[in-house]
Fold:
Amino acid sequence: MNAIRSILVFTWIVLSVIPCGIALVLCSVFLRSDTLWWWFAAPFLRGVIVAARIVGGVKYRVHGEDNLPKADDMRRVVLCPKHQSTWETFYFPSMTSHPLAYVFKKELLRIPIFGWCMGRLDMIHIDRKQRAQAWNKVAEQGKILMDDGKWIIMFPEGTRIERGKKGSYKAGASRLAVATDAYIIPIAVTSGRCWPRRSFALRPGIIDVSIGHPVSAAGREPGELMEEIERWIESEMHRLDPEAYK
Structure:
């Protein structure tokens, strides 16, 4: 039964991304990126989460939602979520009050339709082989995008991590926050419970999303700031998913 649920959800993703993505690319000729976000990207991503919930049985509950700044709050924000699966890449853009800009490897731009859309939404694509140039691009474009009302989202572990494991936390997000006087919002996500990494097999259950208090980066050192973010996320992961950390 779970296999049928998963097939139906991923069929929906494929069938819906084609018309939505083509419409976004065509309309990008004469519409601003934030308009494209609210008209096309956010509704599509929200639809995936709804399909996963209704068809796949992947439900979720949010803790600390009040910690997210409201729509009229123009503070610079960098979201730092735990990264266990593809689920959160769909979820966060569907529920935030501001458009999000992902920092992602440029190879994703080659994906037909999906990659084209990412290229039209004023996100930050980098070449990981050129570390110094990549960081300069993140710092420069990140400030511009945040001043335009967008939030930057960076997974501090860099890649999806197996449930119950901890990756190496990189200081890129904290460096950006310090350089731009932004706030970092740590987020714990137990998505590996229902949507394992590198898998298309959904498991019915409940994903917990815990949003921490915004942490000001003003006057902080990137290394010790990221250590604080790491401690909070990992402590919260142990609390939310104790079975995975036995």
